[in-house]
Amino acid sequence: MTHRPPVPLGREHLVELAAALDGITHTFDTIETWGARMAHLLSRGGRLLAAGNGGSAAQAQHLTAELVGRFHGERRALSAIALHAETSCLTAIANDYGAEEIFARQVEAHGRRGDALVLLSTSGNSANLLRAAERARGCGVTSFAITGAGPNALANLCDDALIVPSPHTTVVQEAHLVIVHLLCAAIDAALDAKSRRRIRLDNEISLAGRVSA
Questions:
Q1: Binning pLDDT at 50, 70 and 90, where does residue 90 land?
Q2: Closest by CA position to 138, among listed 155, 153, 117
Q3: Which residue of 56, 152, 185, 201 is surrounded by the most CB atoms within 10 Å?
């Protein structure tokens, strides 16, 4: 059994959370880069797949809900699927292929070259997420890991990773929610910037047409 440090309680929990959030401030540029990449693929009809176990499953589903619905401003719905929410599919795969395949087989089914896969894990060592990352590579799907303290296997296996520097599962999960919100904001900002560039270009083309006429 893996040794886990005592769970921080009360004021100590807040101190640990503040330290973890401070530790991810330097990753903001990475989050913006992720947002721009995901906005590009989603605006071109691509798909974002997401998965996690336990509390991380809830965070992954939070991400997909914000994309299919909306985060702040109005925009068109974006294609995002939480793989762990497919309960009948999940149990069938686990029964026929084993628990380690529950996400990987769905990546194989839904993932297309250029799509994105976001995997959330506090430990970074969940076997079913590792298998999903491996399958994504074979399908040409770009994989992004959001994990707890590194180094860990999932962060090493994915194309890029954001690591929360805390040994406490509760703190990591709470910081992951902040990352999810920052990522949603970055995606929306990139989509908005792309829309404004398109409108400006259309206006310039329209003005050039009137001048030439």
A1: very high
A2: 117
A3: 56
Superfamily of segment(s) 23-212: Glucose-6-phosphate isomerase like protein; domain 1 (3.40.50.10490)
Q: Alpha helices of the chain — where are they, by DSSP H?
A: 10-23, 28-43, 55-68, 87-97, 104-110, 127-139, 153-157, 169-212
Written as six digits, the tokens of 140 are: 């040409």
Residue closest to 9 by CA, chosen among 149, 123, 170: 170
Partners of 145 in the β-ladder = 119, 161
CA distance 157 to 147: 12
Tokens of 149: 């303290």
Q: What is the pLDDT of residue 121?
A: 98
